[in-house]
Write a structure and sequence with these properties.
The chain has 13 helices and no strands. It is mostly helical and 235 residues long. The radius of gyration is 19 Å and the shape is globular.
């Protein structure tokens, strides 16, 4: 797994992908900070971080579109699935590489509450709670992206499938309100954004944390199943 992780993490910075994702995120975060904090004299960075969840709709597909599909396109996936490395190690190594780039990206935004602390007294407990929720939400989106990337060798198709999945997650709450009934209740269990709400209210919800971790585990598991099917075929 370590070798896979190093290879993928290095690949992010040997191509424009990491720089584009980090740069785009930092630009949006800066814009929101200037408009939502500096211009109106408001020190509440939690609202800014909550609004940044929309940026993940575009950034997640960028981070994950090539992570699996590139190997299928170049034929290197055959080497992976026939090597002594287990499918779990391959999937976890790739996922952790994407997650580390994501954490670096999110880390760039911590400069803004630090700037605010020079001139005011922001609630770092509330900011920390929101960051935990934001990272867990992003980790869940990355798991979706890794799975989507395992389905195709085309990076554009991978990005579009990830985009559709994430947009669906954004509109689930609206669908639940329209549909109602038992189906709406069942659908509400898939909502990732509703699990983020406690964190934006400065509450470290153990239920939400467990849900996000389980969500990531499920999508990584079905990614492994997808890869194992191809491993069996190749054998």
């Amino acid at each position: 797994m370590k070798a896979v992780f190093k290879r993928e993490f290095r690949a992010y910075f040997q191509s424009p992908i990491a720089y584009v994702a980090i740069g785009a995120f930092f630009f949006v975060a800066s814009l929101l900070y200037v408009i939502g904090n500096l211009l109106i004299g408001d020190g509440d960075f939690v609202n800014i971080l909550s609004n940044l969840t929309f940026a993940l709709i575009v950034i997640t597909p960028i981070l994950t579109m090539r992570i699996m599909s590139d190997d299928r396109k170049n034929g290197t996936e055959v080497l992976l699935v026939t090597s002594p490395t287990t499918t779990m190690e391959v999937v976890l190594g790739k996922y952790l590489a994407a997650l580390c780039v994501f954490l670096i990206m999110v880390g760039t935004s911590t400069i803004f509450p630090m700037i605010t602390s020079i001139y005011g007294s922001p609630s770092f407990a509330a900011i920390f709670s929101c960051y935990v929720g934001f990272i867990l939400l992003g980790a869940s989106y990355l798991a979706i992206g890794v799975f989507a990337s395992s389905l195709t060798e085309n990076q554009i198709v991978s990005a579009l499938v990830t985009l559709v999945f994430i947009i669906f997650m954004f509109v689930i709450d609206a669908l639940v309100a329209v549909i109602g009934g038992w189906f709406g209740t069942a659908l509400s269990w898939l909502s990732l954004l509703s699990r983020f709400d406690p964190f934006s209210l400065s509450v470290l919800s153990l239920t939400s944390i467990f849900y996000y971790i389980t969500f990531v585990a499920v999508f990584l598991f079905i990614t492994m199943v997808s890869m194992d099917r191809r491993r069996w075929k190749s054998n």
